[in-house]
Amino acid sequence: MTRTDPLETALERGFAQIIGPRTPPRLVAAMHHALFPGGARFRPRLLLAVAGAAGAPSADAEAAAVAVELVHCASLVHDDLPCFDNASIRRGRMSVHAKFGESLAVLVGDGLIVAAFDVLARATVACPTLASAIGLLAAAVGANGGLVAGQAWEDEPSADVYRYHQAKTGALFEAATSIGAVVAGAEVTEWRAVGTALGEAYQLADDLGDLVGTPTDLGKPVGQDLIHARPNAAIELGLERAFARLESAVTRAADLVPACPGDEGFRDWLLSSCARVFPTRAQVRQDPLRDRAPLSA
After folding, report:
1. Number of structural domains found in the chain
2. CB atoms closer than 10 angstroms to residue 78
3. Mean per-residue pLDDT pooled into runs of 10, the chain (297 residues)
4. pTM of the model
């Protein structure tokens, strides 16, 4: 008998909260398609792991984890739109706009973001400490260094790759660790630093995957950063230095974990999760940048 994943159960429960008899049927189907089945669910699992390590019951953190994943899935829907990546595949199947159309995909992304705050606001009734999490999540989504800012850097004449990545990827990782700390009544600043390092590692892994991964392995198109001339740390650094920086960021994240009841267990979870999700040097068969003309050419 297959064991039910508590996070997936919580996501299904959260989804049931945000739709109802007045929701158009195709919108329900498109939103469900965006959420299920998910990928690694790294961000919500990170939030739950932080809260658990710092001593909070998992039930107190579930709604916050759902909210973070709703925002993440919304960002994927918007990333895939024709005006951005124009990606037809996500998580190994048709992206939302490819299956349901562009206009509905825009609404799905918008609806999921609103739903995240709906779920989080409802949860503050049972867990009042979550009230401050609303502001933390809003900052991670917004125009001042959040997801919106990260996407908007692509429309600037030039962008610092690390500033771009901190907003587009790092902000939500910082929110996940910070909110996990809030739920447990732990020090937010120390856990935010763990999220910053993990966000850097995840984006480096994503940049490397875009260069050396395959659509089958990643469940999405690859080579997109070269096609769209987007900032990519692996292109800027080269594969060897990018892998070295990825490994350094993972080590730094583990080293920054503050002393708490479950710190050793959290480090084990973090390192095993990164090893499972991130690309390794052994997977690289050839350097796609080897015969590439210099950027100035």
Report:
1. 1
2. 23
3. 80 96 98 96 98 91 97 97 94 96 98 97 92 96 96 90 92 98 96 97 93 85 82 88 96 98 98 93 67 40
4. 0.93
